[in-house]
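Fold this sequence, please.
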Amino acid sequence: MAEPQARARPSRCSRFHDLRHEAVSRFVEAGFSDQEASSISGHKSMQMLKRYTHLRAEDLVSRLDEMRKRQ
């Protein structure tokens, strides 16, 4: 049985998985299309890509402000 400390440490897999989530979100924020981001990340469906894309609220507000200024 693993010691409590050993179980508390994140595995390499979970760290890679976390980085993948972060990368997908940043690709979309950088202006990559969904199709481009899924090709880079290896997601086979748009449903999975959307599940792993987490956009920052402040970035969305900035983009909305930019759009409003152009009108």
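The chain has a mean pLDDT of 82. The longest helix spans residues 12-29.
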